[in-house]
Amino acid sequence: MNASPKFERLALIGFGLIGGSIARAARAHGLAGEIITTARSEKTRARIAELGIVDRVVASNAEAADGADLVILCIPVGACGPVAQEIAGHLKPGAIVSDVGSVKGAIVRDMAPHLPKEVHFVPAHPVAGTENSGPDSGFAELFINRWCILTPPEGVDAGAVDRLRAFWAALGAKVEIMTPDHHDLVLAITSHLPHLIAYTIVGTADELAQVTESEVIKFSAGGFRDFTRIAASDPTMWRDVFLNNKDAVLEMLGTFNEDLAKLTRAIRRGDGQALFDHFARTRAIRRGIVEIGQDSAAPDFGRPHPQIKQP
Ligand code: NAP
Known about the structure:
It is built from twelve helices and nine strands. It is an alpha/beta fold.
């Protein structure tokens, strides 16, 4: 399992938050002899060239994939099938083809039929991100101490899986392997449902006639602003996540609605014990996340606060 994390030529299809972060980290750690990327607009290509992180930026996905040893699609989930079709005839035999999509079952369904059998298809999902997007939003440290989940289809070359695992480990990530269906179920509750709830709450607050918009913003530190960060995430990316992980999200939403009904009933009946027990259980989950190093215990998520000056 001492596979090399280095690739002669790395092609990143898309240079947004995730593609741009992979490029920066791969460059910083010397993981690619050459990095080539794509952008659809002339303006974005000019900006990427100006940043000076990659060796080449081109308009054509097929041209970027041509001759690359590792090709990673860093684009919205819904665009991966058509792009796989576009690059299929240009892939080098023995190349590893991967992606970073937040849904995995749909990626396998949409990409695999287009890819030639001479390439190794190993889908991946780095569970790391921010609400920002575009070529300036990436940073080399994004993946450090975060999980990257690989979902290799049955029968894929074990050496290719090891090489991709080594690549992600060299970017700073901890790597785990799962089936696509299990990935989609786990992420439905840990990521997709929380985003849906944040999108709902922020939309609901926006529509409240009795509470003005300026009051919502003014008093947002009461909890609302933590939802607004999540609800500021890219609309294209999240539209594609919900369209492509429909079954798992609907299953989790069903359970969520039942639990919400239980809490609603406890509030209506004045059942303080039920509320207390529920909140005590959820507080322990937060502590567990801090204990395993997936978030900081700093008060108020580490936001700076004014200090009282000592006399
Ligand atoms: P982003 O910053 O918005 O970047 C998206 C990139 O995709 C841009 O370079 C855009 O290129 C390109 N693109 C969009 N539509 C395309 C199409 N039809 N054909 C070719 N290129 C296209 O998004 P991101 O956050 O990096 O997300 C990319 C992928 O990472 C998504 O699949 C998402 O599910 C996954 N992911 C995101 C996060 C997160 O927190 N953001 C975390 C883990 C995984 P142009 O500049 O030409 O528009």
